[in-house]
Structure formats: C-alpha cells, structure tokens
Amino acid sequence: xxxxxxxxxTATATGGGRDGKTALADGTLELQLVVPKELGGxxxxxxxxxxxxxxxxxxCFLGALRVAAKQTQQNVPDGTTVTATIGIGPxxxxxxGITAALDIYLPGLPESDAQALVHATHDIxxxxxxxxxxxxVQLNVRG
Length: 143
Fold this sequence. Notes:
By secondary structure, the protein is an alpha+beta fold. Helix content is 30%, strand content 26%. The protein has 3 helices and 6 strands. The protein starts with 10 loop residues before the first strand and ends with a strand.
C-alpha cells in the first residue's frame, strides 16, 4: 500500500543497538539505550525501543483521536489522555514480538460515543495501521 509521506525523520543507532545510543540526524534528540533486566541487561537509567514506541504511539493516537473527532463532528473532552503500554517477549513461533495496550480516558463522554470514537481513531492512526496486521492492540476505553 503506497504512502505519500509528507514528513520524514532519520535516526541512527550506534554501539550495541539496545545498549548503545540513538540520535536524530537533525540533532534535536539523543538518547542512551539500556537493556532492561527482564531481557538480561543491566537495567537502570536509559531508554529502549519499547519505551520509545510507547511514547510515540500514545502521542500519535491522541492526535489521531482529535482528527477522528473532527471527522465525526464530536468534541474531545478536556483532560483526555492516551496511555500506551508496550511489551516485548519471545513468540511461540520463534523470535520476538510485541504487545500493545492503549488506555484511552475520555472524561464525561458517554460510553457508546467513546467506543465509537476510539474505534474510528484506531482505523486512522498511523501507528495502529502499521502494526494491526501483526499485533492485537488492546483498546481500553473509559469515560
């Protein structure tokens, strides 16, 4: 499926990958990476790909929520939040896979409206579209 990319960014990882550094080519962000204890690393301060994915997915979904609300002529309530929980672990088929859960808080929005808005958002969010064929994203909605 072709995508007409309107924006692109570039990052480079150095060192050991999950235990090195990653930096944006434009110089606006550089992060030290550390392997979590749960994956056999030292843990401690530092980022990892799952943390970065959780940051990006939560922000992207919240932005897409606002787009979906405009398209359906709804309002996103003040105080709305999206919390992404990303996991990693071995797959039964071999290799590793990720898990994803989104907790979407839409204060004061009736349950049926909130559910409809979240499902419409899941259909347009770029992160959701990127992973929906390989990851069963759990959508938890509360108002």
